[in-house]
Amino acid sequence: MSAKKALITGISGQDGSYLTKLLLDKGYRVFGLVRRSVDRSLKNLEDMGVVDKIEYADGDLTDECSVMKAVKSIRPDEVYNLGAQSFVGTSWDNPILTTEVNALGPLKLLNALRYFHPTARYYQASTSEMFGNSHDKGLQTEQTPFHPRSPYAISKLYGHWITINFRESFGMFAVSGILFNHESPLRGPEFVTRKITMGVAKIKHGLANEILLGNLDSKRDWGFAGDYVEAMWLMLQQKEPKDFLISTGETHSVREFLELAFKRVGITDWEKHVKIDPKFMRPADVFALHGHSASAGKELGWKPKVSFEKLVEMMVDADLKRVENSARADRVVEAII
Length: 337
Ligand code: NDP
Ligand code: GDP
Hints:
Radius of gyration: 20 Å
Number of domains: 2
Bound molecules: NADPH dihydro-nicotinamide-adenine-dinucleotide phosphate, guanosine-5'-diphosphate
Low-confidence stretches: none
Largest sheet: 7 strands, parallel
Helix content: 40-55%
Strand content: 5-15%
CATH topology of the largest domain: Rossmann fold
CATH architecture of the largest domain: 3-Layer(aba) Sandwich
Strand order of the largest sheet: 3-2-1-4-5-6-11
């Protein structure tokens, strides 16, 4: 029997890199939709040791032709739509781009599958941000009403519903994973976890003295990306298409993340190194996310393996190594965030 084919959009990102490794290990042929850029940076895929094992297709989720061409020529068994303008903060500055990629992108991909390859199984990367501040006794479940609080979350809500709509309208195997925040050493540097672990590593090595942050009381249900891509795969192996919520079931504040990250390098008076900068306060924040992923446990047999403490340690250790190896790229990142 020939190997199964998986098409991944957003393959160069954090989740794309972990998912590629997982699928290659399972014997899949992995195809990646990648955008043209000046340096074609596929750093995450290099770090994961998979960059040469992927079959690449030129494309962009905003370009319908390229999406159709990829679907028609690859005829994938499984499609993982991870491509997105994924940063909430940027979505207020670039709301139209965010909507074009995150809302119309899934529509273009689903339409291409509907007309050219309707038997493919489709995964949509939905997000806990769609809940906003809505909760049921402090928890978000599959039944919690959505109340998105950013252009990012609103665009993702469209992607979520259009996936359900194609399933209900055309009988396609199209599912949506409502994933809570998940992190790793490959997390983008603008997200609060990575910003903290990079800052801590630099402070430890005397290359910086402080980290500028926004709302320290904000709480997230943070898991490990490597665990979460397994849940994506499991969703596409089920008999019936169904949406699932994926979370660790624990919630922690930014403050707690800071405390653990600084503790890892032996700094206990961490408050001295953290300054609040109003620039990093959100126009409308999501204050607390805490997921209840019982159905994923029961029906997918999925549970997270990496604890919050281990996740923080893993990220700090990786950034310490990066700083030790070289301080080079950090100057560029600092200019951005
Ligand atoms: P990343 O930001 O690490 O990766 C985003 C990917 O999308 C990159 O590969 C990027 O490519 C690609 N991309 C951006 N714009 C386009 C476009 N116009 N056409 C094609 N590809 C594009 O995100 P993550 O890996 O963290 O997240 C994966 C998905 O899961 C995203 O959809 C995100 O919104 C969603 N999600 C993530 C969560 C998390 O906590 N990580 C939680 C819930 C949902 P390039 O290299 O060219 O920029
Ligand atoms: P998000 O949940 O996808 O928005 O992930 P982020 O990592 O970007 O933000 C998580 C939470 O951390 C949000 O409530 C932010 O308001 C809060 N936060 C506090 N300071 C910062 C900061 O400097 N940068 C970012 N990105 N978030 C911050």
